[in-house]
Design a protein that fits this description.
There is one protein chain. Helices cover about 70% and strands about 0% of the residues. The protein contains seven helices and no strands. The relative contact order is 0.11.
Length: about 110
């Protein structure tokens, strides 16, 4: 087989069909909408550049929830308009700062009191 033919030959495998990725992305977007409603935020705010503690907590909860549903980091990044390394940071509890843990503990106390 010549070199030109080898280059033109199509691959016989497909990594992930587009329709499967689209379904997972739609599922991630629906989870994003649910978490945004829970935190009383808009999806636009969650995807925006703000780094306020309550917005980051909402993003982190979205990542944890969607990852538990079987959605990968790259698709979560696409849903949040973030790089997938950011999503991996949200999923790794060892990297969460002490300030964030205190915020989450205080938030849980307030919710239980209400």
């Amino acid at each position: 087989m010549t070199e030109a033919r080898k280059r033109k030959r199509k691959r016989k495998y497909v990594y992930k069909p587009k329709n499967i990725r689209r379904k997972r992305l739609e599922k991630a977007n629906s989870i994003l909408l649910q978490v945004a409603r829970k935190y009383m935020l808009s999806v636009k705010t969650m995807r925006g550049p703000d780094r306020h503690a309550h917005i980051v907590a909402a993003r982190r909860e979205f990542c944890l929830t969607a990852h538990a549903e079987g959605i990968g980091c790259i698709l979560l990044g696409k849903a949040l308009w973030r790089h997938h390394d950011t999503v991996q940071y949200y999923l790794n509890p060892a990297k969460q700062g002490e300030r964030q843990r205190r915020y989450q503990a205080r938030r849980d106390e307030i919710r239980q009191a209400a």
